[in-house]
Amino acid sequence: MRKVRLLACSSVALIAAMSPGVVMAQAQSAGSTAADTAATDKDKATELGDVVVTARRREEAVRDVPSTITAMSAEQLEAKSPIEGVGDLLQTVPGARFNGLQSENLAEVSIRGSGTQRATSADSGVGLFVNGAYVGSSTLGGRNFKRIDYFDLARIEVLEGPQGALYGRNSEYGSVNVVLAQPQQRNGGRVSATYTDDLEQLRMEGVVNQQLSDKVAVRLGAQVTGQGAGQYYNPNQNKYYDHTDGYIVRGQIRYTDGPLDVNLLVDSQDMNLPTFANQWVVPAGQIATIPLGYTGPRYDIPQDTLNDLHQKVDRAMLTAKYDLGWGALTSTTMALRSRSQQHFSAAVDLATEAMFQSLNEIGLYPLGGTYTDAKDETFYQDVHITGDAIDGDLQWLAGAEYLAQDDTYVRDVTTSPCALTASSGICGGTPTAPICYRLKPTALTCPTTFPLAFGTHRLVPSEYRSAAVYGSLKYQIGDLSLDGELRYSRDDKTASQSDFRLYTTTPVGTPTTYEFEQNNLSYAASASYRLHGPVPALIYARTGTGYRAGGVNNGTAVAVAPNPLRPAYENENTTSYEVGLKSDVTKHVFFRLSAYTSETTDAIASVLDGCTVANVCAQAGQIFNINGGTVRIKGIEAALDSNFRIGEGRLMLSLNGAHQSAKWEEVASVPGAPILDSQVAQMPDWTMSANVNYRRPLVGDLNGFFNVAYNGQRGGGQDTVTAAAPFIPLEDLDNVDLRTGVDFRRTEVAFFVKNATDEVIPVLKLQQGAIPLANRYSRPRTVGVSVSYRW
């Protein structure tokens, strides 16, 4: 309640204190959907590059931003195929990649050299924002957007390169801002139904926009998803690993009166989401407990333990704008509470373990599993003022920001309370209700009292406070533009950890509490020049810095460990240099080209403490984060957008490609550090995409359309390469999505195919050193139909 009261007061108090000013000129609203403008633009060429964005906290056209930026409307995104995840949002962004890993809790966004697997317990290197409010966190699931974040969106804006000066922490390699549709002063709405046949999934959406008066408008939306089948199946429990069901609801009310524009948004999500399924691919003669090797089923994967993901989000957001005459004030306040609960297991079921024992193999403990419960409470406040002087030649911005996050992370790991042998009974249950499974007639009975712990229960509460002040100046001298940005930030983190034996209050080890405090000064500077003539263009040069906030390691320090746990790790800092070109090659072709190089110092990497149950530690090893060294990054990106009239129809074509290289050029002198000159994890050498959309009238008010979307990747490695972890190549990817259909006045019917070539590749290869253990695969082809009606 306290955070909700703060949200209701902070923005309003700022606005109420201001005296009336001159009415602010309204540019195209961030809340207008693509459908609002499609009707007027359908029969004329779109002015490519003129999309208005707020990526630099002021409204400006994409063509005027002296850095690499991509903006896509909801209509452009939905024209490719139904939006089913963050990967669909980023398919056509050069240099960006979404690492899905089947489970949304584990998924991450990467841009340029950020990678996604160097420190999965640290913050993201890419800033995640909704309506300008920070929605990322260092908890499980906090490096990916939630589904509620892109329901009823207006557009997304992706800024590449360090954005620390404007966006602060964790925008080290770029930022992604999702702009949600806002209430408009009109009456209208839409309803839609999307059915995916292979999943037997039905998703229904409805949005209503209503003008209550000349000053007040409301917007109400809801999405409900149900699913009866799937592609990855657990026959033991008649459940699908890739199951989705639940709802998203949102209500908004917007008040506009002269210079004042206030919007209150309240929304909620309660959904069961896909978890992951691993296929065992153990070769013969490599693992002592399975000497004959084992290849498990890929799609029908039996397990006797729980595998699910439940995610709940509640959020309130207040945005307020006021024209002071001499400047425009914008305040963004958000209170967010989320919880992600997940059960997963990489084990086998009891029947498979019985098969192992019948072959006189020890096998794998079939009742092991992990439960995670990540809770996050975030309060965010940003206030900034923009203005201009000298007849508009000088533009300025000044702002302040505050972030408070309180997180609680719980992890329960279930292990065997008895030694596992080829002739043992399988011990399970709980200490108060033990169960013994004798999987073959000659199996031994379990001990009367199980001698070992059933597993561990870990509790990690943490607090994060971040405050910053920032500003920018832009000076226009004819066709020359000079920009400067500066931000000072302070980050404070505290985290504690306590471990217990599972199902008991018996502590394991000594509880720890670590603190982290650090300041940061980020900057950006750019110069751009507009060329006139037969091929007008903007050329620019830019340099900037960004950082990923350091933190504390939640673990137990073992004095005899070969690589003892370090209590904290410092900020990771990146300095980048970029040159680029944006050009209207013709009236119908907009081209962008950029090249960059950057250096990341104190780069964060995940390492092992070197412990095993067989060495002097006498316990399993644990992973923690260190500053592993220096990473050198370089790359080049190109994108082309075109819009042509062909016959009676209109063809829109988008192409992009990016080549990037990110390697460790210096490494820290600690055990487990990355190998010198090895590649940064999860960074393909090449990424590319193409999108072709054609629409034309057929008969009367009947129009036809089709869309082909392609994205691919080449090269790169999966994990950080160390002395104990060899290079694992990423699989090449070529994905094609198709969509075709007709629209008649306000009704549209479309058929779609996702992954049309049915290309299924390993998205994660689990190994013990160089020995393969299990693979996790991408989704096979799906087909479906969608129907929508707008008014």
Secondary-structure blueprint:
Layout: H1 2-16, H2 34-41, E1 52-53, E2 60-61, E3 69-73, H3 74-80, H4 86-90, E4 96-99, E5 108-111, E6 127-130, E7 133-134, E8 153-160, H5 164-167, E9 174-180, E10 188-196, E11 201-211, E12 216-227, E13 233-234, E14 239-240, E15 245-257, E16 260-273, E17 279-282, E18 294-295, E19 308-323, E20 328-344, H6 350-358, E21 369-389, E22 394-414, E23 426-429, E24 434-437, E25 455-477, E26 480-501, E27 512-531, E28 537-548, E29 551-552, E30 568-569, E31 572-586, E32 589-608, E33 623-646, E34 649-667, E35 686-699, E36 702-714, E37 733-744, E38 747-754, E39 762-768, E40 771-777, E41 782-790
Parallel strand pairs: 6-9
Antiparallel strand pairs: 1-2, 3-8, 4-5, 6-7, 8-9, 10-11, 10-41, 11-12, 12-15, 13-14, 15-16, 16-19, 17-18, 17-40, 19-20, 20-21, 21-22, 22-25, 23-24, 25-26, 26-27, 27-28, 28-31, 29-30, 31-32, 32-33, 33-34, 34-35, 35-36, 36-37, 37-38, 38-41, 39-40
Termini gap: 38 Å
According to CATH, the fold-level topology is Maltoporin, Chain A
What is the typical, i.e. mean, pLDDT? 88
Please give the domain count. 1
The CATH H-level superfamily is TonB-dependent receptor, beta-barrel domain
Regions with pLDDT < 50 over 5+ consecutive residues? Answer: 1-46
Explain this structure.
The chain is mainly beta and 791 residues long. It has a single domain (2-415, 453-790), classed as Beta Barrel (Maltoporin, Chain A), CATH 2.40.170.20. Helices cover 6% and strands 53% of the residues. It has six helices and 41 strands. The strands form eight sheets. The protein has a 22-stranded antiparallel β-barrel. A five-stranded mixed beta sheet has the order 3-8-9-6-7. Strands 18-17-40-39 form a four-stranded antiparallel beta sheet, with no helix packed on it. The longest helix has 15 residues, at 2-16. It is globular and about 85 Å long. It starts with a helix and ends with a strand. Mean pLDDT is 88; it is low at 1-46.
